[in-house]
């Protein structure tokens, strides 16, 4: 059924972790370096290598699929997101497909099959061995749930039958010659299956990997603390944990509750409750991290206050992302160009929308604006990357449309997610910086809570002591909006708060891969023309249609790969594809 059919019975071992297995367990060479099931099912390092395959294909912040939305244009003519947005999207060409995540699901299922045999000895200490089993089984359930969520987000939708459908939910390893002709569950049944795996994980995982004995979960309190630290100590703090799982449950529930899907108060309640419980462990709104706006400027392992889940910091400095995105005058390719649509989303510094009635001057467009605008976007006249960037007349190679495939097409370049300490030298060398992948930030969880709680009961709906108004107030105050926030105070209805929350989400989570999916789950237009802004030496001029987007009406729900539906007749395609 899937690319995962290419998995074979012999499994290549991944030695990803260090420090868990002692040197005397390193494997002796085996014929052609292939390991059969009997060996893998009893060798700790080999078995854990299978589990670690479940950590592949995690979705991070570096996709830049915003180029397929109203937030950005990609200046590379052959960019897949550009091609998709301009009308090439179909069941054979879908750059946002996640069907291959089933491969990670199968790895996890293979691991669960192995540990069910109970033959692995992680440690000769019985308590430590038992806790290794518990923790890694919890990781496996959580990873299986997460990958099914990724697939559901990308492929759930209204089928040709007219029913709202989810995806097949695989709970067993399937051999290469097995039966992959599996029907899709209903959408809600898929959500519930994912929730069940998350709950199974929560029953096994520590909330955090910590050396704080007072923070040990009740299920682990019966064990000697020194033994506990061996299996669940701080060395594992980038692995799946109970805190991460609760945040993921909130993300799933918000997605399920959204207008394009179940539009369901019960799931909104789950999202708000799960989110509030995690947020209250950091002090509620007072725990909103000060570096939530600019975490990407430092990637500091010693200041993880904004991170619920991230990857490891790179061992070596790098500059690849910045090479793609920096303006051409500082030796970048200027690939992602934020749109005027996105710039218009930023309010005035007093918090009111950027309209002439509220003080916006179209000929001085960046004055008195929300400070996040110039934190996230290189505007005309910005200093960035070691130079001054002018995108209008006199801007040289940075000027709009000056050099095809390098210069901006909208009048803007990107700052968000780029490390400002990177320097791309004229001689082709670079001063790189260390980065890490981001999988879940606290700011997203605050916004999940605000959206869900508002949909249940409006701006001042209190759930576990938090309200949407309090959350949005804290986010906007951190952003530098003038206080008191008179505009926020004027919001009294669910509808008005909904628009404000959606706009704050658009800004705060920009260029981290969220808006592509948000537009679809909200049922908003996918065909807003991408706009630009150009300084002609005297005036700023609107460019009303840098790109005309061309999505079919049914693109709210993305297609299942065509070759899969052709090979497996039980697999129903989404309507229109």
Automatic annotation (TrEMBL):
Residues annotated as transmembrane: 7-27
Principal location: membrane
Pfam families from the UniProt entry: SusD-like_3 (PF14322), SusD_RagB (PF07980)
InterPro entries listed in its UniProt record: SusD-like_N, SusD_RagB_dom, TPR-like_helical_dom_sf
Domain of life from the UniProt record: Bacteria
Residue stretches making up the RagB/SusD domain: 314-577
A Gene Ontology cellular-component term: cell outer membrane
Domain spans labelled SusD-like N-terminal: 65-210
Keywords: Cell outer membrane, Membrane, Signal, Transmembrane, Transmembrane helix
Cell location: Cell outer membrane
Leader sequence residues: none
Homology family: Belongs to the SusD family.
Name of the protein in question: Outer membrane starch-binding protein
Organism: Jejuia pallidilutea
Lineage: Bacteria, Pseudomonadati, Bacteroidota, Flavobacteriia, Flavobacteriales
């Amino acid at each position: 059924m899937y690319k995962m059919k290419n998995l074979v019975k012999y499994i290549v071992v991944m030695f990803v972790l260090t420090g868990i297995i002692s040197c005397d367990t390193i494997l002796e060479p085996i014929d052609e370096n292939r390991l059969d099931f009997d060996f893998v099912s009893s060798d700790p390092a080999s078995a854990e290598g299978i589990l670690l395959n479940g950590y592949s294909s995690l979705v991070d912040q570096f996709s830049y699929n915003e180029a397929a939305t109203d937030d950005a244009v990609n200046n590379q003519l052959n960019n897949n997101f550009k091609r998709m947005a301009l009308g090439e999207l179909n069941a054979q060409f879908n750059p946002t497909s996640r069907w291959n995540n089933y491969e990670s699901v199968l790895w996890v299922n293979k691991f669960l099959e192995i540990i069910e045999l109970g033959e692995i000895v992680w440690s000769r200490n019985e308590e430590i061995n038992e806790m290794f089993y518990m923790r890694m089984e919890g990781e496996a359930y959580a990873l299986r749930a997460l990958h099914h969520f990724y697939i559901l987000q990308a492929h759930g939708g209204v089928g040709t039958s007219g029913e709202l459908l989810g995806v097949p939910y695989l709970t067993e390893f399937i051999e290469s010659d097995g039966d992959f002709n599996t029907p899709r569950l209903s959408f809600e049944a898929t959500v519930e299956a994912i929730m069940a795996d998350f709950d199974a994980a929560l029953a096994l995982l520590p909330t955090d990997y910590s050396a704080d004995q007072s923070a040990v979960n009740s299920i682990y309190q019966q064990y000697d603390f020194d033994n506990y630290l061996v299996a669940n100590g701080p060395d594992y703090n980038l692995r799946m944990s109970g805190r991460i799982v609760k945040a993921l449950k909130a993300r799933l529930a918000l997605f399920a509750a959204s207008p394009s899907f179940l539009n369901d108060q019960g799931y909104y309640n789950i999202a708000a409750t799960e989110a509030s419980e995690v947020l209250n462990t950091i002090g509620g709104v007072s725990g909103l991290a000060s570096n939530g706006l600019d975490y990407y400027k430092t990637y500091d392992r010693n200041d993880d206050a904004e991170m619920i889940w991230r990857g490891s910091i790179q061992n070596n400095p790098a500059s690849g992302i910045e090479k793609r995105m920096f303006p051409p005058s500082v030796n970048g390719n200027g690939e992602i160009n934020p749109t005027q649509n996105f710039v218009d989303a930023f309010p005035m510094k007093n918090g009111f929308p950027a309209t002439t009635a509220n003080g916006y001057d179209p000929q001085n467009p960046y004055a008195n604006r929300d400070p996040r605008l110039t934190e996230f976007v290189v505007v005309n006249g910005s200093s960035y990357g070691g130079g001054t960037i002018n995108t209008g007349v006199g801007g040289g190679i940075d000027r709009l449309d000056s050099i095809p495939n390098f210069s901006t097409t909208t009048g803007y370049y990107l700052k968000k997610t780029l490390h400002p300490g990177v320097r791309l030298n004229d001689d082709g060398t670079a001063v790189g910086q260390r980065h890490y992948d981001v999988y879940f930030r606290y700011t997203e969880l605050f916004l999940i809570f605000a959206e869900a709680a508002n949909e249940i009961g409006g701006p001042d709906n209190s759930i576990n002591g938090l309200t949407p108004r309090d959350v949005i107030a804290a986010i906007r105050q951190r952003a530098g909006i003038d206080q008191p926030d008179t505009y926020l105070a004027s919001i009294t209805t669910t509808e008005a708060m909904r628009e404000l929350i959606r706009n704050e989400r658009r800004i705060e989570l920009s260029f981290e891969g969220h808006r592509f999916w948000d537009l679809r789950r909200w049922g908003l237009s996918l065909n807003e023309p991408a706009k630009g802004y150009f300084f002609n030496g005297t005036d700023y001029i609107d460019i009303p249609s840098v790109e005309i987007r061309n999505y079919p009406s049914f693109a709210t729900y993305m297609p299942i790969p065509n070759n899969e539906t052709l090979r497996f007749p039980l697999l129903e395609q989404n309507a229109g594809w």
